[in-house]
Structures are given as structure tokens and as C-alpha cells.
Amino acid sequence: MMQEKNARRAVTAIVLAAGKGSRMETQVHKQYLDLDGRPLIWYALSAFEQSSVDQMILVTGTGEEEFCRREIVERYGFKKVAAVVPGGRERYHSVYEGLKAAEGSDVVLIHDGARPCVTGEIIRDAIDGAAACGACVVGMPVKDTIKIVDDQGDADHTPDRSHMWMVQTPQAFSYELIRKAYDRLFEEASHQRGITDDAMVVETMTRHKVRLIKGSYQNIKVTTPEDLEIAGIFLRKMGKTVDI
Ligand code: CTP
Ligand code: MG
Predict the structure, then answer these.
(1) Is the shortest distance between the CB of 62 and ligand 1 below 6 Å?
(2) Which pLDDT band, with edges at 50, 70 and 90, does 8 fall under?
(3) Selecting from 3.40.50.20, 2.60.300.12, 3.90.550.10, 1.20.1260.10, what CATH number does the domain 4-238 have?
(4) Would you place residue 244 in the very low, low, confident or very high pLDDT band (cuts 50, 70, 90)?
(5) Are the CB atoms for 124 and 52 separated by under 8 Å?
(6) What are the domain boundaries of the chain?
(7) Which ligand is nearest the CA of 113, by number?
(8) Confidence of residue 81 (pLDDT cuts 50, 70, 90)
(9) Whose alpha carbon is nearest atom 7 of ligand 1?
(10) Taking a C-beta distance cutoff of 8 angstroms, is the pair 58, 97 a contact?
(11) Which of 33, 84, 95, 112 should be mutated for ligand 1, with most atoms under 8 A from CB?
């Protein structure tokens, strides 16, 4: 049979919302906190809904699936959410659940649901980057000087800032590559310590290079209470909020 040339590649966004938001120190998990009339997770879902991705997998806390289906997916009419699946203890467990649910995709984007300020342009660049390089993550050059400190809290050394980037999401990969990397991670439990992003899994478990592309200084992760205020400012400026 003839292979179809330039067949469109199926793109899935895995949106992570299975964390406990402990650094936020609120009763309600941070992904459900109200920001100008919408739950925080709404903003990331909305950005992907309006993008060219074919489908989304929403990864939520165990037991929160039905709530998310009803109160978020149905209530706000997200059409691209193909599945709501329970995540796991650490972020990388949640990603693995999302990857299993995204079987059959050509390209996957993995996104922190706690990054509401992601834009259509960033999503597009990440998809293009994954298509071109197989592994592409969004980030920005660091603005502060970073010091490596020892156990006593004394400065040990100061790495050259011009080579340092802070990493954001989405992180976009060929499905085959990221699935293989995660399968290996779960076969070799000794590698699981200190895994904080998906690029690390590719760096550790494969020889594939990971390309960094510029996201935006506004694409912040809402982690502590002041981040919610800052995200609100950016979203209002972007015309994304509904109440005001
Ligand atoms: N996440 C997840 N599953 C986990 C842990 C985190 O899906 N077991 C998600 C979070 O919901 C968030 C993203 O990964 O969207 C980034 O994680 P982080 O900012 O650390 O969120 P939390 O783990 O919820 O917060 P904290 O670390 O303060 O508890
Ligand atoms: Mg966390």
C-alpha cells in the first residue's frame, strides 16, 4: 500500500493537574483556585483548545476525574479533551499515565496545568520544534545569577549564566521517543530520583538531543500565592480573563 506523503501528524497535549499544590498552602488544590471567574486549569485548557492540537488528555488527582469531567470539561465545553485520567504520586508518574492514554499520537506536548499564560504562539513553536528535532522544550535565559550552594549554605560556585536557561512547558516530543524514554525510566527505578521535567527523562534514558526554544517570561508556573496575582496581571493584559 502506498504511504501517504506529508500525512498530518496527530498531536496530543497532555495537561497535568494531578499535583497537590502544597507550596500554595491553600485548602483547594491550586489548579482549581479561582482566577477572575475561572478555575486556574481553565486557562491552559483554553489555550490548547484554541490551538492546532488534535486532542488533550487531562491528568487529574485520583478520585477527581468525575469532578473534572463535569465541572471543567463539560461545564466550559472543552471539545478536545479526549480523556480524563488519574495521575500518580510524582509528576513523572502523572506524565506516564498521560502518555499511556495518548497511545497512537505522533507528537505529544506535555504541559503543566499550573502555567495558565501559555500562548498559541508558544504552542505552535513547540509543535514545530518537535516535528523538526524530535524533542523540544520551551524555556528562557535566566535573569538572576545562580549559585550552587553546599550543605552548609555556603556558595560553592557560580555557573556561567550565559549558558543557563530556566525550563518551562510545553515540552514537545515525538511520541515514540518520549514513550520509549519513559518506559525505560519505569524499568530502571534507580533513575527516577530527582526527575523534575520531561526533557530530563529523554536526556537520561536516551541519546537524543533536546532543543530549547524561547517561550516567554510571562509563561510562569503558579507555585506560591504571589504567582497567582502575577498570572492574573499577565492574563488580563492578554485579554484572557472573563470577569473584568
Ligand atoms: N503534577 C501532576 N502530578 C503530580 C505532581 C504534579 O500532575 N504528582 C502537575 C501539577 O498539577 C502541576 C505540574 O505538574 O500542574 C507542575 O507541578 P508543581 O508546580 O510542582 O505542582 P504541585 O506538585 O501541585 O505543587 P507542589 O509541588 O507545591 O505540591
Ligand atoms: Mg510538585
Answers:
(1) no
(2) low
(3) 3.90.550.10
(4) very low
(5) yes
(6) 4-238
(7) 1
(8) very high
(9) 18
(10) no
(11) 112
Burial zone of 175 (CB within 10 Å; 0-12 exposed, 13-18 middle, 19+ buried): buried
Residue among 14, 15, 20, 93 to mutate when testing ligand 1 (max atoms within 8 A of CB) = 20
Rounded Cα gap, residues 81 and 203, in angstroms: 29
Q: Taking a C-beta distance cutoff of 8 angstroms, is the pair 217, 140 a contact? A: yes
Can you read off the three cell numbers belonging to residue 143? 535573569
Residue type (1 letter), 48:
F
**Band (113; pLDDT cuts 50, 70, 90):** very high
> Cell 525505560 sits at which residue?
184
| Cβ–ligand 1 contact at 124 (below 6 Å) | no
pTM (two decimals): 0.95
171 CB under 6 A from ligand 1? no
